[in-house]
Write the structure tokens for this entry.
Amino acid sequence: MSYLIPGIPMIAHGKPGIVCTGTGTTIIGGPKKRLIAPHVVFHLSAVSGFTTEPTISVGTNNPNYDNIVGAFPIIGLSTLNDYIALYLGSGALASIASGADLRVNVSVAAVSTTYTLGVYLVGFGP
């Protein structure tokens, strides 16, 4: 078992296969138990005909879905199987309830023939 904090098990919750060549939201779904997530990891699992990255956000607040990760362009994520990990800070962290309506929102589409991400929240549970 992996630990971010000694004695508290690490939890990863997310979804592969998020197509970012159009705008809209993709349901990740809520974790099985409450998740406090100081990190979000983006994995580029498919890319071709690449020109520019998408702008995405992550959250539970309809319709913007940006209360966990505010909208930002994923600059630099353009090579197949690359990752970007965001540290969400050491202050008040998002506490995501079990079964929450967690979504990824693509507000600006990638200019690319294909651009597919995995989005994973990494943290711990109480």
Q: What stands out?
A: The chain has a mean pLDDT of 89. Residues 36 and 49 are 36 Å apart (CA to CA).
